[in-house]
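Reading a protein record of the kind used here takes only a little practice. Think of the row as the fold of the chain written in a discrete alphabet. With that in mind, consider the following protein and its fold in token form:
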Amino acid sequence: MKIGILNTGNLGSRLARAWAHAGHDLILAKDGEDRKLAPLLFELGDRARLGTIREAAEAGDVVLFSVYWPRMDAVVGEAREALHGKVVIETMNPLNVDADFRHTHDLAFMQESSTAEALQQRMPEARVVKAFNLMAAPVLEAAAWATSPSRPGIFYASDDAAAGRLTRGLIEDAGFGAVNAGPLKSARQLEQLGVLLHHVADNEYRGDADLVRLALSVVEASPGPIMRERAA
């Protein structure tokens, strides 16, 4: 499969490595200085080539949309027409960035919408899927969990069942378990889980130093629920 990566940043580069290893071909684009991609392109060899935002959108059978929330409209402006009818896997969180590069969640926006819904509204002909928004790039490699007792789940949400199934396969190709969170509107809860993870990092762990080590998983009881008679 050909995968276009719109903004090959920290997260996109991790997935590029995993997907190249799984046998996919990649078109890497950078929302910024593409010279920074030279080491990654050398590492991936003939599995990857450099392209513009527009070229990656046109060439990909599926596209990873992994840009800063404040840059969404600019990237959409370059890629919109090329993404008609394509599966677009969106990884954003609604983060505002100040002059000192400090990130804060846009809590007012999160009460009424999600970045996935906003992207779908701007590109109604695209098949948007929410995924990969709850793990920091340093742990978005299967090797980071090699000795962990359980493998984290990657939640995904979409109104397009076929697009969801394709995304599920790419999640598994990246070395993770996939968890179907339902329709695209569920992206609101997935983004709110990101806020919860920050609270957990601050209160149970050591703040941002450990936030990059955390992920979520859904665990089934085994052998199963223990049913008892209810007390009167």
About this structure: The chain has a mean pLDDT of 95. DSSP finds nine helices and ten strands in the chain. The first helix runs from residue 10 to 21.
